Amino acid sequence: MKTASRPLFVFAGGGSGGHLQPGLAVAAELQRLLPGAEALFLCSAREVDRRILSAAAADNSWLDWAPTAGARGGTGLWRLGEPLRLGRESLRAYRRLRTRRPMVVTGLGARASIAGCVAARLLGVPLVLLEFNVFPGAATRLLSLIATECLTGLPVGEVSARGLHCPLQRAGVPVRASIAGLHSELYISEPGLPRLLVLGGSQGAEEVNQLVLEALSGGVRGQVLPPDWQIVHQAGEAGAAGVRERYARLGWSVRVESYLGDMASELRAATLVISRAGAGTLAELACARRPTILLPLRVAAGDHQWKNAEYFETGLAAELVAGGLADAAAVVQLRGLMGELSRDADRRQRMSVAAARLAVPDAAARAASAILKTAAISAQ
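The structure assignment produced for this chain is given below.
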């Protein structure tokens, strides 16, 4: 443990970049507002958590992290034996925190957040939840019974809000400062080097990979995308080699990466994006003003990605593809949208303007201010 003289803020959750990156953005803002503050992330044991948090901690001496939850994805709160597992994880988090009282514990959503949030309440520490999606997840709904407040990201509908049992405050989805800064930059709809950016995400990348490749392989390069378009494809750890090989068989020179570290630069260079519909990714795309084709992960809890995508489609900031790889109509629809949007600069420009309207570039500052307010009230 680090010295107890410095204020500590704990973030509980993980399992994907969509949960961790907003938390890191808030932690950085807290450190900026309160120099000397430290952040501890109680996360899952998944590889994506290790990669993201170890890289962030290497660059920031005030940040630390420790796995307290299992590596299993999804919430799975009602499976046989799950209460016992959650109890063990909560005890592990309690032992981690009891020698030093945090100012506030912030829950980042999903199953991996439960242990740290329960430990907070056992220690009498204020608990603030960050719920990024249009439809709150099961973990957020459960933890709202013991939370001080819930800061929402994308707008939560009136019906969904009834399932939350603590005060709500809209803050927006926090994004990294480097990406929030893109909101002040104009989108160039007719760049000299047009580029398609494909984002598979840390979960569900395989289906995105296959769906995009099926759509692109439906015709020669110039029929699907204009011949001068570049492609950058984030394919995930497991899929990168196979995706790279398949592009090579198609005779296309494509930059395929398992993970894109400098997302701000990638978004700045993108003319059109194909992406999943996690709230964190959507918030970054809105800040970057990028026109997007959305392929929501249909097995996401509560179908929240579909609901997120509908919000962006209704706001005219994105086009939504229904179905998945097993649905041939989805391949045809995606192929058609790629062809239309790659050739219609005016339509891309309108989508860019609409995306910018949905952005909340100061969301990290809003969330940090709310957390500091909770900390001050608690200290009185």
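Interim note for the steering committee: The chain has two domains: 8-175+362-379, 180-358. The longest strand covers residues 38-44.
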